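Meet our chain:
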Amino acid sequence: MDIVLVGPGRAGLALAVRFVAAGHRVVGVVARTDESAEAGAVLVGSSPVPDGEHLPKSDLLVIAVRDDDVADAARSLAPRSAGVSAAVHVSGLTSVAALDPLAATMPVGSFHPLQTLPDPQSGARRLAGAWVAVTVFDEGLASTLDDLARSIGCHPFRLADEVKPLYHAAAAAASNYPIAALAMAERLFSTAGVPFEAARPLVEAVVANAFELGPGSALTGPIARGDVGTVGAQVAAVAHAAPDLLEHFRSFGLAVADLAGQGDEMKDVLR
């Protein structure tokens, strides 16, 4: 497949590196500046597309710009895309309607990898085994995108356009909320004189349990047991050693209590 990349940032280049490794060709790179386009093109063995020039003939236009810039990019690219067969953006939040300027001449959709992509090389490696949300209204393009996802070692799944904000909220919760909890745990462990690394086997085990058993069944500990006295002792310890974390500790505890069906039992000690 011949692909034009618009937006050679972390996500766009991670995908492009993966595309090339799978045998696809990136035939052009579009960026805000000539320098960015050139740098991105060098990384994937492609050529920069100068501002204002028509895009190379290609099977797919991949728009990997910021969510807020997708619609503007589509408007800018539409007059230059006569040789392009289809287009997608890679936002997990933005509606496919943002590509309406392109939809007049080609099928459009979105192709969102559910994975963190911190830089092109490590991001490309992390795409192996990741899931990709495919949002389309054209079955031909749907099949093409499914095949593209599988070719780079990913698992495609359908995502309705109207639920993309909810999906994106779920992705944010899955990727960032555990990090906030671990940052709090790191601080408390450190204050207690315990290395954070000691928690790694525990954290890896509970995450595995969450996917094997389901989050509700994976809960353990004093809140799940309804052990009010133990939870009260924890709250008192946090209040003494790290009072600035107390509100967060209680909030996480309340969320756990509700999930465990212990909200009534724990409300006094955690509020």
The longest helix spans residues 164-191.
